[in-house]
Design a protein that fits this description.
79% helix, elongated
């Protein structure tokens, strides 16, 4: 008699697990661009109101839908990943998604033009993460990469000066004092505001 209730319990448990798996699979294949778009509007509204908790909640769902709809190297996926990373940054929680920030940086670097706005934002977030984690040596190549994307225009010349200051500070923090000195001298010769 005791075997029958155990058998019935196992059968019910198996049915429940199968149902849960089917619901999860249905949810993954149920994504449409329209559904993701509606969530994007909600996330944008939350971000406009600086409600980062809600923006992150919607952003996580958007990323889930984007993963179902696009390849990870697709510009749309990279853009949505960047947006979610920005929400975390604005909420002061960037270190919680450090892996995603690095992923977005690498995907943007490999799949987008260096001057693309999404690539620029991904680099800025990755740089901010590295500085927060006190990985100053790893931040130096990111700054040099930023400098390599600049043009000869006046706005970019001011940005170049900003990047030289970052390089100077990073070399000082990593104890590379000769390079720190070079970073102070080079801007005088390379930047012209005429």
């Amino acid at each position: 008699m005791k075997k029958r209730p155990l058998y019935l319990f196992c059968l019910i448990l198996l049915c429940l697990i199968t149902t849960q798996i089917n619901w999860a699979q249905a949810d993954q294949s149920n994504w449409t661009e329209e559904k993701v778009g509606k969530l994007s509007v909600k996330a944008d509204r939350a971000a406009t109101r600086k409600n980062w908790r809600l923006a992150i909640k919607y952003g996580e769902r958007i990323l889930e839908g984007s993963a179902a709809l696009y390849e990870v190297n697709d510009p749309t996926y990279i853009t949505r990943l960047k947006n979610l990373n920005r929400y975390y940054d604005k909420a002061g929680r960037l270190t919680e998604v450090a892996g995603r920030v690095k992923l977005a940086y690498e995907l943007a670097k490999d799949n987008l033009e260096p001057s693309h706005s999404v690539a620029t934002t991904c680099r800025a977030l990755y740089y901010r993460l590295l500085i927060t984690q006190k990985k100053h040596q790893e931040a130096i190549p990111v700054v040099y990469f930023n400098m390599s994307t600049l043009t000869k225009g006046k706005d970019d010349q001011f940005r170049k000066l900003h990047y030289f200051r970052q390089i100077y500070a990073l070399y000082g923090l990593t104890g590379q004092f000769e390079k720190e000195e070079e970073a102070l001298v080079v801007p005088q010769f390379e930047i012209s505001f005429l």
